[in-house]
Design a protein that fits this description.
The chain is of the alpha+beta class. It has 6 helices and 5 strands. It has one domain: Winged helix-like DNA-binding domain superfamily/Winged helix DNA-binding domain (Arc Repressor Mutant, subunit A, Orthogonal Bundle).
């Protein structure tokens, strides 16, 4: 599962940054140094991070120490599909599928805070059937599951 499997981490970070640069250029959105560094921080961690954790890293890099710096950058990344907010943890994680419209499902390790993202399709399965029976139209859905990742589970 992406997020838990070993992989070339530097390539995944570089690919995501390139995708963000291309998207922002096409959308005429400013991919500022603070926004770029915020995305890099989230990508390098592969775990949910609170805004103040991100802010501490930005401050260490000389990019600002006021909370709005981090919140604005995180809001931009979420709006453009490069990050997601994990409601249960009040934290953020880099998107594993940038550039595609999707409803994410998150698997969150309660031991190491690693997060893996999987695509969710709320229109299918039991939730979709229940919504259809109730006459409810699902616009967005976020699924969050807590458990133990393969690394923490290994002896």
């Amino acid at each position: 599962m992406p997020g838990f499997d070993p992989h070339d981490h530097s390539a995944c970070v570089a690919d995501a940054i390139s995708a963000a640069e291309a998207h922002c250029a096409a959308a005429k959105a400013q991919f500022t140094p603070v926004r770029r560094r915020t995305l890099e921080i989230l990508l390098r961690e592969h775990k949910a991070m609170g805004a103040y954790d991100v802010l501490a890293r930005l401050d260490a890099d000389g990019l600002g120490s006021a909370p709005p710096v981090a919140y604005r950058a995180l809001d931009f990344l979420v709006r453009h599909g490069f990050a997601h907010k994990i409601a249960k943890l009040n934290a953020y994680v880099a998107c594993s599928h940038p550039g595609t419209a999707h409803d994410p499902a998150f698997m969150i390790c309660t031991d190491c805070d690693a997060v893996a993202e999987a695509p969710a399709d709320p229109d299918r399965g039991q939730l979709g059937r229940a919504a259809a029976e109730a006459g409810f139209e699902i616009k967005t859905a976020v699924f969050e599951a807590e458990g133990i990742c393969p690394s923490c589970k290994a002896p």
